[in-house]
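Repro:
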Amino acid sequence: MSDDGQSAITIIAMLGSVFSPYYAKARSRGAADPLMHCAMNVALYGARADRWALTERPRGAVSRSRRSLAIGPSLMEWSGGELRVSFDEITAPLPSRLSGTVRLRPSAPGPAADGAHDSVALDGRGLHRWTPIAPIARAEVELAHPALRFSGSAYLDTNAGDEPLDHAFERWTWSRALGSDGIALTYDVRRRDGTRMLLSPAFDAAGGARELPPLAPRPLGDTRWGMAREIAADPGSAPRLLRTLEDTPFYARSLAAATFGGKPATVVHEALSLDRFASPWVQLLLPFRMRRAR
């Protein structure tokens, strides 16, 4: 997110794209190779226009090592204490070029690229894991297409799983509240077995971490697709929606203002419904937001 709040970018490297209808179809026939369904998802949000790129690529377009990952023409690589992401993708559904470079530098010292961060099991069997690698970071964004430069706060994490998400979860919400003295994360997970997991870790710029008492969710308002949005915030406060970044039948990404720990915070919020995602009508819509390279 840019310091002036006008631009933002999200980049997700997917090995075995969890939202690929082609991967889901392959799994329905038996064991499927996740590396046949990989993508570098790039979403750009700005005052002039938003752009979305998601191209699924096969195993032959993927190259990875301990410190780098290449998917087609796009690359993530740790170098000199920072994560450098270069990408050159085509948007969907309307084709246009989306290319540039992002440099992310963790604010706290430490081996962010060396796996020295604890993973949290999101399900009861340890098949789904979340790792906040660089909860507080800075990013420098330089785009060639469209021509745009900005810098601002950033965040880096990873999720890994050994089964499809909809097998273990009904839905979840995730949020990152950025304040003047650090960030507070919230992970509210509703599992298929009827249990719930609520995580509320907080991090400061020096790398310190602590678990906060969970806050009751406050309503943020439904999306146009009817996705319910609830956000963790102080009791009695009224979170305010600033912008809906993504509005789909099963997923919403939003920007909000809220009070957290008695202090104002800018919140990036995500809501995911795996029940909706698994429904046949949503599966039919997915190819309209993605491309597929042969």
